[in-house]
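Our example pasted here:


***
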Amino acid sequence: MEQKKSRKEKAADTKNKIFETAVTLIKDKGYDNVTVDEICRTAGLAKGSFYVHYKSKEDIVRESYYTDMGAYISKHYTEFIVSNPDMSVIERIIYFLGLEFEFSEYAGYELTCLAYSLNLSACIPGASEHFSKRQFAKLLYSEIKSSLVFSSSGFSCDEIFQYLESMVRGIMATWCFSNNSFDIVKQGKRYIEQAVYSLYKNGGG
């Protein structure tokens, strides 16, 4: 017997449907050619449902690399951990970082560029909320903390976290500046593997 979904689960499903629909339309037609009305119509949702989860079409872009990326990574990372219980902590870190690249490919080049632009501009008026909004990064931080015993870098947990997250963002930015000229998932994973294995001895157990 199928279990009934909670209100929270239904809300999450609705938000995900809005986001997936917006991503598909933006990839097909371009951001400027997609309206909130069209997103709702294509998703088969009332316009009021959209505004429960997003303030505007621009808000989809702003939130894409926070709550939407978080939902994507949490889902796929949990599935990976359940399916691969014997993976080393270093392999888990590499997989986690690779999911950030996979999300960029999924969201698309234009949305990724816009997210960088909008979220960077939001830092100018005052204190940045970037790190506090990236709640999913706590998973990465926890894995790094448990990996310190294998580290030969002399870096602290905070330094390794900042180093790896900076690498990921830098690769994403290069992908944007190069007009999507390389495979961000395949190439990104190569760069990340090189960076991660340089920090640890014996491959992390």
Q: What stands out?
A: Residues 62-204 form a domain with the Tetracycline Repressor; domain 2 fold (CATH 1.10.357). The first helix runs from residue 7 to 29. Residues 58 and 102 are 22 Å apart (CA to CA).
